[in-house]
Amino acid sequence: MSGARPRVMILGGGFAGLFAAQRLARAPVDVVVYDRTNHHLFQPLLYQVATAALAAPDVASPIRRVLRRQKNATVLLDEATRIDPGAREVHFKKSGRQPYDHLIVATGARHTYFGHDEWEQHAPGLKTLEDAFNVRYRIISAFEEAERLGGGPEAAPWLRFVVVGAGPTGVELAGAIAEIARKTLTRDFRRFSPGSAEVILVEGGPRVLPAMVERLSDDAVSQLQRLGVEVLLDTKVTAVDARGVDIDGERIDARTVLWAAGNQASPLGRDLGSTDRAGRVNVRPTLEANDHDNVYVCGDLAHFEQDGAPVPGVAPAALQMGRHAADNIRRQVAGEKKRPFRYLDKGTLATIGRKKAVGRVAGLNLTGTLAWLGWLFVHLIYLVGFRNRAVVVFEWAYSYVTYQRSARVVVDAGGGVVDPRAPVPKSTEGTAARETT
Fold it and tell me: Among residues 147, 154, 172, 395, which one is catalytic?
């Protein structure tokens, strides 16, 4: 390598990548951060962009602005296509081959459709701002179509929302849509009642929020049901198209289907050796890839087991991994021994709606208002930037007092809804259907 200082390359500007870069601020290294977008996205609040509670700038910060005072950091907009650990190079779409001395790979994950990628066009997931805009467009447009149709049987499929997957994202989406229908939009339409909307949460397993203890899962179901959400457990999705979903042989006619059922790690992980079934890279205690020195893998892309179980793919874990990888690079540069990573679980919280949430913090089970206030506080702490925190506090206060959502403006990004007069696809004919009445 040319130059007097080691070059640390970071792929991904999420929690792991951004906090790793900041941790190296005073290290005698040159840091270069590559991302295919120009912003750090606060993913835990992305569902609020999708459900019109927050605007995109409230949960996203330009990476270049965050690192503007860090003299040893350079930010480049590009997408990595291949990692060559043997040559210590990364291939990029625009920049070609670029060398590194130390590499931190934190390129995250996308939603997976379990071998049915064709479902994505009909059931979008929620990982990026583009996803959030698409989901918001579909939700708002569904109510607009119901108004145009004047309510009644024709409008019923537009007023039926299906969320697939009952992890935190699915639970949060389902609760938010129910609140939009029953609180936010109650006075906005003349030809139908938004409160008549159906929200159906479908989960293939026996519990919602399966990472939490059973008591909290049961409490989450109760809170969802009080919001008017129908929860279907032990239910498998067998088909998805523009007109709805098939679940265990039953047809649900729904024009808005949203996907929150699983994750698949970034394909870059395949360049780094052994992976698990979700494509996550198996890493050593130091967070280096099992098969390669000086290549650290963090966040959703890393499979790291602690106390017999994988560390969860959540923002606090990614943040801690990023910082630890940076600390180990600092130790390497200083000629010191690298240290093993230890995840500090500070608790888990999931919000369901206004004063409705569940969580476990410091060994205590929290539900209702107390869990909701804890969720608000924790998310404000981790949100990047004073401006974002101030705006989000104001928006939450405004929404709490008025039940309104200030980011309801939508633009057709291309095919978010289907023509209600379109014929039902042949693949769904003859199946049992949840009738529109």
Answer: 172
